[in-house]
Every structure is written in C-alpha cells, then in structure tokens.
Write a structure and sequence with these properties.
13 strands; two-stranded antiparallel sheet; alpha+beta
C-alpha cells in the first residue's frame, strides 16, 4: 500500500460516525440528548430566560416609545412652562390662532374623574372644543352616533370604542364622573363613538361645560395645536413659545410625542432599569449554558480522545460541540420567544393591567433580538469546553473516568 492509499485509509472523513450507520447530525443529536433530563432542563432554562428577556424588552418599548400615528407628527401640545399642573389663560387662543403655519387649535384640559364607583379609572376625560377638535384627530373615525349632535349638546361627549365595549355602553347612555382634580362632578351623555386612533379609550366633552361648572373659569389645561404640515411643526413651536415669552403665563410647546415621553420620564430612567434587569437575565443564562456544556463535555472526554486518536482534528471536534450547544440554545429560544409572542398576543393585557398597558406588542425586532442573544449564548457556551478539549491529549483523555 503506497502513501496515498495510506492517507485515504486514515482520512477522518472515512471514519466519521456515519461509517457505523450514524450520520454527523445524528451523532450530534444523540450526544445532545444523551442525558434527556439535563437537555430538557437546559432547553427550558433558555426558553424561560428568552421569554423573560422578550417581555422586558416589550415592556421597555411600551413605556419609552409611545405609539404614534402619522397625524401625530402634525400635532403640538403647549403647556404652562412652569408646570403641567399650572393652567393657561383661555385668552391666549386669539394670539395662537394668528400664528402662521397653524391649521387648528383647541383647549385640551384633563379632568381626571372617577367613573361610577371605581376607585381608579384608567381612561382619561378631556375637555375640548368639539367644533375644532375634529380637525385635530384626523385618524379617528366615527363609528356610532352623530358628531354634529355632540357639537350641539353641551352635556354630550365623544367616547372611545374600547371603553364602550368594556362597559357594555351604547349611544345615549349617561356617564357619571366624580371629580378628583376639580371640585365638581360630571354627568355626560354619549352622543358619538370614535375608533381608529392609537388609544380608543378616552372621553371628550365640551370645554364650555367645564367653564360653566367652574363659574366661568377662563383657564385651560393645555392647548392642542395642529400644524399645516410636518415641515411647519418646528416653526409653529418656536412662534408659540415666543408669543408668550416674558408674560405671566409662559408656555412650552412641544410635539405630541415629546409630550408623551415627558410622562415616561416621571418614572425615572426606565431604559437603565430594564437594561440592568435584562443584563442580569443574560448573565444568568450564560452561566446556565456554560455549566451545562462543560458538564456534558467533561463526561465525554474519553470518547473525544478516541475521536482524536482516529484522526479528527480540533476544529472538527469544536464543530460537534458548537452544534450541540447552538442547537440546544436555539430550541430553547424558539420555545421561549414563540411562547412569549403567543401569550402576549392572546391575553387581554389592557384589561389585566386595568388600562395601564395598551399596545403590548412583541415586535419582530424584539423577537430577533432574543434570537440573536440565544445564538450568541450558544456560541459562548461552546468556547470553554472546546478549549478544554483542544488542550486535552489523547492519553489524558483515555484515562478520564466516565
């Protein structure tokens, strides 16, 4: 037998597991499932960690990235520069209406009442000017009742479709609110129902009614402004701020999105909080994966030494270990991420959280992030055992006890 024949006879490819009827994938799968209980617990650990990670990322997105419609890019909210709790004079409207680039403006005052006998009401009530408000919520569609009837009825209101369904209400029903911020109660009649906005829960009523009950109050909470176009928004904000500069009621105008994010900042550094928790979850997952793979490979040192003796190279042994670690991690990721998506897509979280969480959406980007984290963990978990196998000699490996 010549040297070429000798090399072909000792080629690792001819002594791979499939020589005995087992393919390479089958060999890896058999090793991964050798200890069924450990493999199951590893997959479940990865699954639970990925589900928790996806939930945390989704919650962070819910709190820090408020949903925004296309029409919201045209809208501006102007509040008192000192504090949101400080009202603004109603006479400011005549000045704001003359600002170039502005399409419409309406008072927008938060009432904050308690519905019926509730101790907490998760949906808001706002006092607005109905005749002007329709041009401010362009994405809203009237699905029941008559908008004109609401404009004519000072005691009427416009209610979101979600709230209508939640309480089993209908057009013509009475709504009773107990005042919390204001020293009076409200009794409104549902005249019109809207849907199609980001949040179809709120109630809108006549600002004139609020003024009347407050004995000609002459104040508003904020101004809700619609610019002519997205390009005109910055200019309108500058002009509104400048119009009341150095007055007794200076205003701070900002986009609707910036205004929403202002509320999020009241919770503190939400991104840092959820980032820290996510980091702990990932670190714990690393420990689980590395520990599992190290234990599994240590039990097979003798077998790996035999493969080395048969001519398998280091990178081929590393490929076996990596395939096993990566496979277990990705199976766990699929179960965890898929389970989290299915759970949060099925459950009525808005009802469960009493309206605190509205659009708890597990986005494809969040699921991809969870998958990438699991893949990286599978690779990292294989590095330590692979180094141990690379340093192991055939003799020391054969001496290893099972």
């Amino acid at each position: 037998m010549n040297s070429a024949d000798s090399q072909r006879a000792t080629s690792p490819s001819e002594r791979r597991p499939r020589a005995s009827g087992i393919t390479i994938p089958g060999f890896v799968l058999k090793n991964a499932l050798r200890n069924g209980r450990r493999a199951l617990l590893t997959v479940l650990s990865v699954a639970m960690s990925c589900a928790l990670l996806v939930t945390l990322l989704t919650l962070q997105r819910e709190l820090t990235v408020p949903p925004e419609s296309e029409a919201a890019s045209f809208r501006i909210i102007a509040r008192n520069k000192v504090s949101l709790a400080q009202p603004l004079p109603a006479r400011q409207r005549t000045i704001i209406e003359k600002i170039p680039g502005l399409r419409q403006v309406s008072p927008f005052t938060y009432f904050g009442g308690l519905f019926r006998d509730e101790t907490t009401t998760s949906w808001a009530q706002f006092a607005v000017d109905p005749a002007r408000f329709r041009e401010l919520i362009l994405e809203g569609k009237i699905i029941e009742g008559s908008y004109d009837a609401w404009v004519k009825n000072r005691n009427g209101c416009m209610l979101g479709a979600d709230t209508l369904r939640r309480y089993g209400l209908k057009v013509g029903d009475k709504l009773r609110f107990t005042g919390t911020f204001y020293p009076m109660d409200l009794e409104l009649t549902i005249e019109v129902v809207y849907a199609g906005t980001i949040d179809d829960r709120n109630c809108f009523f006549h600002h004139a009614l609020l003024d009347q009950l407050m004995d000609d109050w002459g104040m508003v909470g904020t101004w809700y402004i619609m610019a002519d176009s997205a390009a005109a928004v910055d200019g309108v904000i500058e002009r509104v701020n400048a119009a009341f500069e150095n007055t007794s009621a200076e205003v701070r105008a900002e986009t609707e999105r910036a205004f929403q994010l202002g509320f999020v900042s009241m919770f503190g550094n939400v991104k840092m909080l959820f980032g820290s928790i996510s980091a702990v979850v990932v670190f714990t997952l690393i420990l689980v994966c590395v520990s599992t793979m190290s234990m599994a490979i240590r039990e097979r040192f003798r077998e790996l030494a035999v493969l080395k003796a048969l001519g398998f190279r280091r990178h081929e042994l590393f490929a076996f270990i990596l395939a096993e670690s990566f496979g277990l991690s990705m199976v766990g990721a699929f179960v965890g991420i898929g389970g989290a998506w299915l759970f949060w897509s099925t459950i009525n979280l808005q009802k469960l959280s009493q309206g605190f969480l509205v659009h708890f959406e597990v986005t494809p980007r969040i699921m991809a992030t969870g998958g990438i984290v699991a893949a990286l963990l599978g690779i990292l978990a294989a590095i330590g055992p692979s180094i141990s196998v690379a340093r192991m000699s055939v003799v020391s490996g054969l001496k290893t006890l099972d």
